[in-house]
Each structure stands twice: as structure tokens, then as C-alpha cells.
UniProtKB/TrEMBL annotation:
Catalysis performed (reactions): Na(+)(in) + 2 H(+)(out) = Na(+)(out) + 2 H(+)(in)
Protein family: Belongs to the NhaA Na(+)/H(+) (TC 2.A.33) antiporter family.
Pfam families: Na_H_antiport_1
Lineage: Bacteria, Bacillati, Actinomycetota, Actinomycetes, Micrococcales
First-listed, main subcellular location of the protein, grouped into a coarse class: membrane
Localization (cell): Cell inner membrane; Cell membrane
Keywords: Antiport, Cell membrane, Ion transport, Membrane, Sodium, Sodium transport, Transmembrane, Transmembrane helix, Transport
InterPro entries hit by this protein: Na/H_antiporter_dom_sf, NhaA
Transmembrane segments: 52-70, 91-108, 120-139, 146-167, 173-190, 277-301, 313-334, 354-374
HAMAP family for this protein: NhaA (MF_01844)
Protein name as catalogued: Na(+)/H(+) antiporter NhaA
Membrane topology designation: Multi-pass membrane protein
Coiled coil segments of this chain: none
Functional note: Na(+)/H(+) antiporter that extrudes sodium in exchange for external protons.
Length: 392
């Protein structure tokens, strides 16, 4: 299972699943698959009654967000974001990298009824971005890798906040309070994992996690927030251990299954002029907005903090980071489902726009990252040759 932990493999599986879903939706199997996706599965004796598609996006994807939250907590504790000085530059780049795509989308869709889709092009798929970096970035210095990793992590934080704040409708305060109690109980039980009661505690944590997730679903808050909350309150060391075991499942099953389900979209048989403004807003804002926003934010962040502590990032490096940020995929697809839940036709166009915009970003990122890596490899080779001649 070790190979599934690879960022390259995870990116390939995600892209392959999305492509397969799009092809399947536009094949003779398409109508049957979409009907299956819309079929409802209820849990007997409970109010839970979700479609197969929502069991995937609300249920399985909560596990992915749990893994993301555990990684976020670890980065803030002992990783790349464990101090203000480390976090400030990628934080500025991430925030500007969210604002610019949102503004571009709002500009493109001005005067239409699709302004609510502004969060869609703001997200970065951390798994896919790092996968592209792993494939094409051999030789890139660690300071740029660290910047891109921190940027993607902070981008995920913003995405989580957007989902929690803007995609919560008519919240049930009682269920929210009960879910909060479940989160607290989960965190307390995780403290027992290092004692003799660890087996009992682990079993109880599974039950509490399922109940908490159910309460969040019923509360009106998007269910993935349950995964985030549980990941943040779990004790760090056992949480990282659990993350290690869950990573092959998220990379090899959950994310590809979600990508396949989200990409089950029939390509609309309409002229480009008949596509909704939301399609063009996403398609333009995702690759273009992220490149402009992250590059601008990265440049502005270069004026923050003591000069001697500012890592030097070239324009080429910032452009590469911006292109990687434009790979939206997982979170953008989720936001598209949430933003246009009441308008399936526009949601389908939004899905196509996310896939196309992310694909454009992948191509641009592949070119920028590979040329950047080649230049660093040449510089390293020249330096080694100079050192060899001096030693001789």
C-alpha cells in the first residue's frame, strides 16, 4: 500500500477517476449511473436519508477532511507553520490568491444570478498540486517546496472556513450543540489511546465520530466540517498515526470515488455563447485568478518581516506556485455542488469548468515547474563543477 501514499500516484488516480467519470456520463451507461447516483439510501431508525452522491460527498469526504485537519494541526504544532514568521508569507499569498479569483468570478458574472458561485475558483487541491510538483519538480529547492506546501495548507483552511460560513443554511442550534459535545468527547477519548484502555477508547471514538457526523448532517452545517472538527481535537501523535493508516484509503478510494461521482456530468449540447456566466467565471478565474493572486500576494509578502529572514522567491517560482494553486479539483468540485445545488444544469456546467480550468492550470504548472526545476539543476551542476575545479 506504500505506493498509494505517493503524491504522484494520488494525483494520477484523481485525474483518471475524473476523466473516467466524465467519459462514463457521456456514454450509454451515463443515464443509469446518474440514476444510481441520485438513488437514496436511508439509515433505518434514524432521520438520515441521503442520495448515493451525498453519501460520497458528505460522508466519505468527511474522512478526507479529517486527514486534512490532522495535517493542519501538525503543521501548526511542529511543521512549516509553527511560528508567525514562517506562516506570514504563504498566508498573504494564500489570502490574495483567494481574493483575486473571487473578484474575477464576480466581475465575469456581474449582472447575473450566479454571484453565489464566487468560492468555487478560490480553492486549491493540495493532493493534486503536490502531485504535479512531485512529477515535474525534481531539483526545486526546499524553500520553494515549503512555500507551496504552506500555501496549499493555508488555502485549505480558507476553504474550510468558506464552507462553514457560506454553505450553512438554517442551522439547528440544538444539533450543533450536541455535535460540539460529541467533538469534545472525541478529543477526551483520544487522550486514553496511550493508556491500557486504548482498545475501549478507540471503539468508543468510532461510535462518537459517527454520531457526531450524523448530528452535523442534521444540523444544516455541511458534514465535512465534522471531519475537520474531529481532526483538530484529536491528540496529535495518535492522530498522525491514524492519518498514516487512512492516507491510502483517502488517496486510493475516497478521493477517486468523489472525483468520479462529481465528474458524472453530461456535456451540454449547447453553443459556447449559451453557457451560463458561471461557467466562464470559473474557467477564467481558476487558472488566471490563482496565478495573478498568488504571484501578487507572494510579491507583497516579500516586504513583510526582517529582510534577512525573507526567503528569496523568484518571479518564476511565484508563477509556478500560482499555477499549482489553480488546480482546484476536489474542493472546487465540492463548492460547485454546494453553490449550485438548486440549479443542476448550472452545477453541471460548473463541474466542466472546474475540470477544464484545473486541467489548464496543470498544463501551465507542468511547464513552469519543469523549466524552473531544469534551471535549478543546471545551476547546481555548474556550482558542483566549479567546486570540483577549485578542489583540483
Amino acid at each position: 500500500m506504500a505506493f498509494i501514499r505517493s503524491e504522484r500516484v494520488a494525483a494520477f488516480l484523481l485525474l483518471a477517476a475524473a476523466a473516467l467519470g466524465l467519459l462514463a456520463a457521456n456514454s450509454p451507461l451515463g443515464p443509469a449511473l446518474m440514476q444510481l447516483q441520485d438513488a437514496h439510501l436511508a439509515v433505518p431508525g434514524t432521520p438520515l436519508d441521503l442520495s448515493v452522491g451525498h453519501w460520497i460527498s458528505d460522508g466519505l469526504l468527511a474522512v478526507f477532511f479529517f486527514v486534512v485537519a490532522v495535517e493542519l494541526k501538525n503543521e501548526f504544532a511542529v511543521g512549516q507553520l509553527d511560528s508567525v514568521s514562517k506562516a506570514v508569507r504563504p498566508a498573504i499569498a494564500a489570502l490574495v490568491g483567494v481574493a483575486v479569483p473571487a473578484l474575477i468570478y464576480l466581475g465575469v458574472t456581474a449582472g447575473s444570478d450566479y454571484a453565489g458561485g464566487w468560492p468555487i475558483p478560490t480553492a486549491t487541491d493540495i493532493a493534486f498540486a503536490l502531485g504535479v510538483l512531485a512529477v515535474f519538480g525534481t531539483g526545486i529547492p526546499s524553500r520553494l517546496r515549503i512555500f507551496i506546501l504552506a500555501l496549499a495548507i493555508l488555502d485549505d483552511i480558507v476553504a474550510i472556513l468558506i464552507i462553514a460560513v457560506f454553505f450553512t443554511a438554517d442551522p439547528n442550534l440544538l444539533f450543533i450543540a450536541l455535535a460540539a459535545a460529541g467533538v469534545a468527547a472525541f478529543g477526551l477519548l483520544s487522550r486514553l489511546l496511550s493508556t491500557r484502555l486504548r482498545m475501549l477508547a478507540a471503539a468508543a471514538m468510532v461510535v462518537v465520530a459517527l454520531v457526531t457526523w450524523s448530528l452535523v448532517v442534521l444540523s444544516g452545517v455541511h458534514a465535512t466540517i465534522a471531519g475537520v472538527a474531529l481532526g483538530l481535537v484529536m491528540v496529535r501523535k495518535p492522530a498522525m498515526h491514524l492519518r498514516h493508516h487512512l492516507e491510502p484509503v483517502t488517496n486510493g478510494v475516497i478521493l477517486p470515488l468523489f472525483a468520479f461521482s462529481a465528474a458524472l456530468v453530461a456535456v451540454p449540447q449547447v453553443a459556447p455563447a449559451e453557457l451560463a456566466p458561471a461557467f466562464w467565471g470559473i474557467l477564467i478565474a481558476l487558472p488566471v485568478g490563482k496565478i495573478i493572486g498568488i504571484t501578487l500576494g507572494g510579491w507583497l509578502s516579500g516586504f513583510v518581516g526582517p529582510r534577512e529572514r525573507r526567503p528569496q522567491l523568484s518571479l518564476h517560482g511565484l508563477l509556478a506556485a500560482g499555477a499549482l494553486g489553480g488546480v482546484g479539483f476536489t474542493v472546487s468540485l465540492l463548492m460547485n455542488e454546494l453553490a449550485f445545488a438548486a440549479d443542476p444544469e448550472v452545477a453541471d456546467e460548473g463541474t466542466l469548468a472546474v475540470l477544464l480550468g484545473s486541467s489548464i492550470s496543470i498544463v501551465i504548472a507542468a511547464v513552469l515547474v519543469s523549466t524552473l526545476a531544469a534551471s535549478y539543476r543546471r545551476l547546481r551542476a555548474l556550482r558542483l563543477e566549479a567546486e570540483r575545479r577549485l578542489a583540483a
